[in-house]
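Handoff note, outgoing to incoming analyst
You'll be picking up this chain. Sequence as last confirmed:
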Amino acid sequence: MTWRTVHVFVVVTGFVIGAGILGLPIKIGLSGAGFLPGAAMILISAVFQVITALYIVEALINMKTPKELTGAAQEVLGRWAGLLVYAGLLIYLLGALTAYVTFGGIAIESLTGAPFWVGALAYWLAGSYIVWRGARSVGASELLMVFAFLGLLAAIVAVLVTSPYFKMENLAWADWDNAFEVYGIAVFAYAAHFAVASAYREYTGDLRKFAWGVALGFLAPGLAYVAWTAGFMGVIDRHEYHAAFIGALSGMERHGLSGLPAPVAVAELGKFGYMWALGYIFGFLTTLTSYIAGAFTLGRVNEELGGWRLGRAANFWILTVLPPLVLALSRLAAFEEILSTAGDIGASLFSGIIPALMGMAIRLRKGKTIIPGGIPLAVAALLFYVAGFASGLTNLL
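Most recent structure output, in case you need it:
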């Protein structure tokens, strides 16, 4: 694996592993699915997300000039597809970036006693400055933080699995009828397809190695998600999920993420009391890498649409990173629920439905392809995401 391939892997992984990983074990437990159905959905989603991400790579290699995801969708399918992708990206990214800044504000407030706005502003300035410095700064920062949180993740899982609290029977209960209840958070946790196009525009090496970097960038987090979920669900009894959730709600000022972070849950239950601190450390690493990748991509998309240069114009601050800060400081009521619904719908749209249609169109036009399976595989992917989109829309209505 070359350095360029590692760079692609780091950029994709840096966005894929974000705030979603902290809540996966508790969300799966509260859904009533259990570990095995939840892990199955995590891995199935990983496979489909790899497929649709590589459909985007196919679209890029069939273009004379590489574009962002919005431009690629428009060139392959038409203007309507570009508009839908931009709408999905805007819903997803503004929601996600706002959640990350909110985490920074609440976490710093909880740890230091500083006012919320001070923590939110400090977090926002750190992440936005890295993005403003450009692709090289983003790549170096992502590399450092990605390997830091992967190492911390491995250490936390090892502590959980070797502890006296860990019991295999906690992983054995299952309700496969509830497996699809995990779809939303699983797909949300992998929705980094816009980072693929941004990474491609910076890439100058072998395209097959780029494709490998993209695939590994999605698959490695999938394995990390399963290991992390197994570690935490293994120390939580089936009947403790609701108790942990209710306990967390009584002190929500301690929690800066939408949903309940798994490290905080075990601390609420009197297990590993120090885990809440590790949750914050891990939360800073995962959300900051996601903030950097998301803001960088949104800036590139806005740059492409508006014709201005990323990081060297007031438009970058006004159109890309200022809105999340304003939304975070406004402390919108029930923002977590809004974010969850927007994520389900937005992520299904831009990371699943549109890329699957792009894959079908490329095959119908006999373009260059790198994914086997032909049109039937693209149809299967399309149906998977349409089902999830419909489910999210039903919950919204």
